[in-house]
Amino acid sequence: MSRWAKYIDSDPFKIIGETADKLQLETFVIGGFVRDKILNRGEAKDIDFVCKGSGIELAQAVAKALPGKPKVQVFKNFGTAMIKHNELELEFVGARKESYRANSRKPLVEDGSLEDDQKRRDFTINALAISLNEKNWGELIDPFGGLEDLENKILRTPLNPDQTYFDDPLRMMRAVRFASQLNFSIEEESFKALSRNAERLKIISKERISDELNKIILSKIPSKGFKILFNTQLLHQFFPQMVALHGVETRNGKSHKDNFYHTLEVLDNISKETDNLWLRWAAILHDIAKPPTKKFEPGIGWTFHGHEFLGSKMTTKIFRQLKLPMNEKMKYVQKLVKLHLRPIALVKEEVTDSAIRRLLFEAGDNIGDLMTLCNADITSKNEMRKKRYRDNFKKVQEKIKSVEERDHVKNFQPPVDGELIMKTFRIKPGREIGILKNAIKEAILEGEIPNEFEPAYQYMIEKAKDLNLSPVNTNKSN
Ligand code: ATP
Ligand code: MG
């Protein structure tokens, strides 16, 4: 058995090979599947097949031969077809040759040889093909040295990189994504071509850019991808707010830190703790408003007053700009950006329980994620200082835990609700209800009364006097 046959020694390759032989179509598995098998990287979700002839015809015959005879989804315009088989998506295409026009990602396509097809792929490591026909079952077809590049961890384009990136600028984002995700380096000429073609990224939709960006963010050490994006000026094309974090200014001998590299350090830190994409996004955006809030105040130094509030506003704009979801994910990121300084502030002074209750109330169920973000935000070149901060921070964490255990304000539900207020004073919905509810909430957060029904009820009766209300109905059950 050839060295490569072990990768295809399973369902559904046998059936596809047999079907291809019946139709006399030279057929190969190609692309990400082959790459990831050789790299020993997880289980495949999508597998790409290419044949010399009609991919659609092959797919239709394969579907008939597969158990359960799954449906074929045909994309006539693209000449491709897809079959869902178990957990897998099998993609079929006929080998093609492509030529591009300057103003579009959409190429002119004609039938071609396997090598033509491999040439149009983005990287040599994504152009590796393994034959499925009986006559050369398991043979690796590698005309561009993809295997060697895999071994040396190098991203190289099969054709001239300027051509490859100009033709389809999304490949530039894919280059950075693979570099970050696989921890590969981008071959030198290719790297230069990224800088030369960066502006071409403008013709790519924001959705596709963000898909790749999110994969960069989810890689093990995301700073790797961001540094390449910055150094090639790709980042400048779609995320200028992050570029603006870069740089250091000095006045009267005082410098502030470079917030771009600080942000990347926070992002790498948090990535050790969580795979939550949106928490990682919060790390990227936590200081995003530092440039527009930056001031040099004589006697004080550099300040960034209110950057957490402006940052939370900018989050909406950036999500819209990058076509990220404008839903509860965005709200979650906003909240973390807005609150990111609060736990740190609790480190500094003698903290009151009420300050902790307020933070718990505002953060709610996201308190844990907020603490993860703040912990990641502790970056300093001075190891002693970092340790002192971390130790203090641990104490805050413990305090938060004990206050929550005692007062249960994290998922604060008012112990006295609007219904009971209306019934007690026989009043209609109106501003008094809001005033009383808020007074009770404040009293609980301030620690004047415990978070319990009876004291809250008595407090309401007292407070109502200020509004000239007296109880009419003292039946407390609601
Ligand atoms: P993953 O599935 O992990 O995202 P992949 O390399 O499999 O990575 P797909 O989008 O599934 O990416 O594409 C499958 C194959 O199609 C790639 O391996 C590559 O050969 C080719 N390909 C995909 N996108 C492009 C592109 N923009 N330009 C050239 N070839 C591409
Ligand atoms: Mg794939």
Keywords:
Hydrophobic Seed Protein; binds adenosine-5'-triphosphate; alpha+beta; two-stranded antiparallel ribbon; 478 residues; binds magnesium ion; 24 helices; Beta Polymerase, domain 2
Describe it.
Helices cover 51% and strands 11% of the residues. It is α+β, with helices and mostly antiparallel strands. Among the domains are: 5-151, Beta Polymerase, domain 2, CATH 3.30.460; 153-238, Hydrophobic Seed Protein, CATH 1.10.110.30; 418-467, no CATH class. It is elongated, with a radius of gyration of 30 Å. 37% of the residues are buried. The model has no long low-confidence stretch (mean pLDDT 94). Adenosine-5'-triphosphate binds at residues 31-32, 46, 48, 121-122, 126-127, 168, 170-171.
What's the topology here?
Blueprint: H1 13-22, E1 27-30, H2 32-39, E2 46-51, H3 55-65, E3 72-75, E4 80-85, E5 88-94, E6 96-99, E7 108-111, H4 114-119, E8 129-131, E9 140-141, H5 146-151, E10 154-155, H6 161-167, H7 170-182, E11 185-186, H8 188-197, H9 206-217, H10 223-231, H11 235-238, H12 240-243, E12 250-251, E13 254-255, H13 259-271, H14 277-285, H15 290-293, E14 295-297, E15 301-303, H16 307-321, H17 328-339, H18 342-348, H19 353-363, H20 367-376, H21 383-407, H22 418-425, H23 431-446, H24 453-466
Parallel strand pairs: 2-5, 10-11
Antiparallel strand pairs: 1-2, 1-8, 3-4, 4-5, 6-7, 8-9, 12-13, 14-15
Summarize the structure.
With 478 residues, this protein is an alpha+beta fold.
CATH class of the domain at 5-151: Alpha Beta
Largest sheet: 7 strands, mixed
Main β-sheet, spatial strand arrangement: 3-4-5-2-1-8-9
Bound molecule types? adenosine-5'-triphosphate, magnesium ion
CATH topology title of the domain at 5-151: Beta Polymerase, domain 2
Terminal residue distance: 77 Å
Note the overall shape: elongated
